[in-house]
Amino acid sequence: MAIYIALLRGINVGGKNIIKMAELKSTFEQMGLLRVQTYIQSGNILFESNEDEESLRKRIESEIEAVFHISLAAILRTAEELNLIAAKCPFSAEEIAEAESMSDAECLYVAFLPKEPSKESLAKLEVYQTDNDQLRANGREVYLLYRHSILKSKLANNLTKLDVPATVRNWKTLSKLVALANAMADPARP
């Protein structure tokens, strides 16, 4: 049984695509997914399943559209993948500390993609890098470091250049999801 984390794109943002987490949890349970739990309102769901990623992704997207009438992208990662994503942050501690000293908001993010972007689409996004806004791509993830604010970043505003859906989580949320997934994986937990 694998532990999965579903990262839903574009729900409960700016008063649009509102889904209550209790209803989302219930929907996942009705789909036969096990040990379902949600984290904050931005569409982070942890659960267990024996299904493969692609089947689960299609089933989750279809069920959300049927139940909530919202068409969205569900990006899935296993607990093991999420641990590797956190462990392989390509920015140094010094780079992160410098960015944090220049900003009063979160500065480190990860964009999760359903598939690896093409080199051409990644090149289209890279042109928006500056000394203040940087990216490092690694497979199906793009790590983003903002020295001022994600809200005013041309890099953040052009993630669509990747030509694949992306859902972004800050490092604090990623770290919490890793901790929750690891707690689920602990055999001592009931």
Automatic annotation (TrEMBL):
Gene3D superfamilies referenced in this protein's UniProt entry, alphabetically: SP0830-like domains
One family name in Pfam for this protein: DUF1697
InterPro entries (UniProt xref): DUF1697 (IPR012545)
Superkingdom per UniProt: Bacteria
Official protein name in the record: DUF1697 domain-containing protein
Classification lineage: Bacteria, Bacillati, Bacillota, Bacilli, Bacillales
